Amino acid sequence: MTFMKKGDRVFAVICLGLSFWLIFESSRLVYRTAFAPGPGFHPFWLGVVLGVLSISLLIQTFNVKKESIGTEREIARLPGKDSFVRLSLIVLITLGFAFLMNTFGFVLTAFLFVASILYILEGDGILKSTFYGFVFSGAIFLIFQYWLEVNLPKGFLGF
Amino acid sequence: MKNKWIAGLFTAIFFVAAIILAPMVQAAYPEQSFELIVHAGAGGGSDTFARTMAFILETEGIVKQKINVINKTGGAAANALNYLASKKGDPYVLMNFSSGPVGALGRGISKAKFEDIVFLAEIIEDPILLFVLNTSPFKDLKGLVAYAKENPNLLASGFATVGGSEHIGTHRIEKAAGVQFNKVGFGSGAASATALLGGHLAFALGNVNEQMGQIEAGKIVPLGTLSEERIPFLPNVPTMREQGVNAIYQQIRGFVAYKGFPDYARKFWQDAFAKLAETKAFNEYIDKNYCVKQLKLGDAFKLDVAKQIEDADADLKTLGLKK
Amino acid sequence: MDILHNLMQGFGTVLSPYYLWIATVGCFFGTIVGILPGLGPSATIAILLPLTFNMNPTPALIMMTAIYYGAKYGGSTTSILINVPGEGASVVTAIDGYQMSRQGRAGAALGIAAIGSFIAGIIGTFGLIFVAVPLANFSLRFSAAEYFSLILMGMLTIVFVGGKSITKSLMSGVIGLALGVVGIDPVRGAERFVFGNANLVEGISFTVVVMGVYGIGEVLESAEERMKLKPVKVEFSKLWPSLADLLESKWAILRGTIIGFMVGALPGAGATIASFISYGVEKGVAKHPERFGKGAVEGVAGPESANNSATSGSMVPLLALGIPGSGATAVMLGALMMFGLKPGPMLFTTSSDFVWALIASMFVGNIILVIMNLPMVPLFAYSLRLPYKYLYPAILLICIIGSYSLNTQIFDVFVMLIFGVIGYFMKKFDIPGAPMVIALVLGPMLEYSLYQALSLARGDVTTFITRPISATLLGIAVVMAITVTFKTIRMKRAMIDEEEN
Known about the structure:
The complex is a heterotrimer.
Chain A: H1 3-26, H2 41-61, H3 81-104, H4 106-122, H5 126-147
Chain B: H1 2-28, E1 34-38, H2 45-59, E2 67-71, H3 78-86, E3 93-97, H4 99-107, E4 117-125, E5 128-133, H5 141-150, E6 156-159, H6 165-177, E7 182-185, H7 189-197, E8 203-207, H8 208-217, E9 220-225, E10 252-258, H9 263-278, H10 280-289, E11 292-297, H11 298-318
Parallel strand pairs in B: 1-2, 1-3, 6-7, 6-8
Antiparallel strand pairs in B: 3-10, 4-10, 4-11, 5-8, 5-9
Chain C: H1 2-14, H2 17-35, H3 41-53, H4 57-82, H5 91-102, H6 106-139, H7 144-161, H8 166-181, E1 183-184, E2 191-192, H9 206-222, H10 243-265, H11 271-285, H12 298-321, H13 327-338, H14 347-350, H15 352-383, H16 388-407, H17 410-428, H18 434-456, H19 463-466, H20 468-500
Antiparallel strand pairs in C: 1-2
Helix pairs in contact in C: 1-15, 2-4, 2-15, 3-4, 3-13, 4-5, 4-6, 4-12, 4-13, 4-15, 5-6, 5-12, 6-10, 6-12, 6-15, 7-11, 7-18, 7-20, 8-18, 9-16, 9-17, 10-11, 10-12, 11-12, 16-17
């Protein structure tokens, strides 16, 4: 079984679960008011439709004739271990950014963010990473804080 | 080995430079600049009001520091209130206050509670009108109410947001006159007015300023206002109360802070707002935006809001918006 | 001719150095705003509002309109170059525009976007002059039922923008609809799927999802392997649209212009919906619809023209009726009020100088924008040669700024990240993202208008068919659906025949 088919099955099952949940949650809401559908109407039917579509997709994956469903990619596979580590790092660093943003201030955090991505993930030397970090965060500062006056979080250093 | 040393040296230089430069950057943004929180998005009524007031305060020299408007939307004003609460004790944080936050406090959906709010000044009333199309068969409120009595749930009326000023206002008219309208929400005053203009509604409630163009063109006709007294610039429009329908809704705008706001700060701002109300720029704003000056400082403001919350309580419960 | 005379007067005012400068500044700002994802024109106009306090109404409004236009021109830039739509109206542009970019035709895409936008802007402004008042009055006849049918038409594009699997497109769409349910429901104000989190009460922001799925998702996919992505070869000859491209697009541009103007003139429907409908129409009338999604130039020309003429269109209800059709026009309305100008039926008569200067400035603005943007096209296209490893941290940074500055809350950044991961998996599993995003925008409107239509009709379901305009729109939608279904079936049969031979 190709990756695509497996993927489709996983997706179908997830959606099926989602549809049950939608139907369940909507049962707790008012279905209809005097003239018009109430809050519960919409999610209920969405759940039903999603459920039907999920089952349909699932059935399609069992269709032996079709190699894969609507795929246009030749290479599609889950990331290998290396890639997985890379991606997790990117997500974690970005998450870290979001957390630190309010304490350190946007500009400083941006500097750390760019520098660490370049250093850890791209193998740039410390100097290069620092330099680019400086350049990027400086640009952000000038454009957004100074010129456009968008309110970016200010940290304990005041900027 | 050598590389590590150089790297270390550069990093150290960088940090020292940063620490030295930081205060210089800090000096460009005076530590004394203020934050003015707005619960609505940039460009909306509350936001424009807040920004204009901030602008006037700055340019008239009443406040010599910068006032930064921060939009904290979301949560039906709860987000803004929560943010305000997080700034407890900070003398540099204020919040714009209007029916959105009133509703949030009334429904109890924010961490900030009514007792924790320091009321600085109420400065404007934004009157709400009931209006019909000029082609409407109803020439006055009496006719409208009489028809509605005979035909419950028939007349379609428009309001903006659920639980908002027009929604509660319409409900109060229903209560006071003993009628039932077919109330339809449109999400915004503009959409509701559009529906009225298109002839799809019997009447709609809305703010004056949004409709003035149409009123002056004679396309829509106000049948009554929900304020306590007649509006100065629409002297021929009677209040609801005058016409026998005891429904009042005061839509006010003002400024508040959070508990812990030092007394000297409170005094400063109450003075500032009092001065603001006297400036030419402010009075021009009032004229052009069709609101009514209504200056109530401190406790008088608080009393107004307390009464509003109390009055709205029953309405919210009937409308199913509050348990 | 009275109109001509007034227009000439308007030009006379606008073509002075001061006003030209104002218009240029506005265009420039607008383009930057459009390029940077997350920074919508409404927010910037509001932020720049204080600047305009010191100006007279005419230059102030000229600047605001220029910003509004500029944003639409710039919004397509990031869509095409890095698959991150600058704003809602540029989402569909990303579908084919980015593909063109990957094929080394970024210059062509950017160029066509600019040219299409220019033509649409000019024609749209003419439309504003000649048909504003009657169009405005006509648009008043649109009630909830009509909006419902119109949005349904827009929803059909969901099926069109997906890949080969209709099932997966539909599922993506339904998920988008479900996401739109989160928040306060329009009917009773009940909270749905909020989980007690105050941040979710206003719903999941469309811009945040778009930046997550498209921006972050794309970065995650491309950054999987270090240095794997070679910068796309950009040949010098491909830095501009070719004559063939231009000829292919001419009808798309025309159709897009008309669709955009009409849809934009409807209060509440704007550039975003217009661009969706345009994309759907283009794919529907194309001889070879399978080219769409793989870099069909009409997929860029149509929607980009639509979103520009929608801008002119949205000025129709503003000027003629005093009703703001969108966020940006609402701000303009506020500004007009502050200057004591009352938009409405009287505006054309009482302040005709102002109105005609504004209209003249729209023409001038479009010209300035196309002059600004066209030379920058090769520059932007060339910038793709920057090594990706420097590009993607910058993209991430911009997305974070964009999502944060929406509501000034970190929560949105988290949501964006979550959708970034979701977007990554969607790309891996070949689940199209566009249907979800489109449904997220249109879903709430659909539900809202359904509720309003039925409330106004007091429960009478036939209202959608008995009202003539609504019935017509539904009819068109049905025709579109049938046409595309037939074409797809024929196409699939042809494919199967090919495979078997």
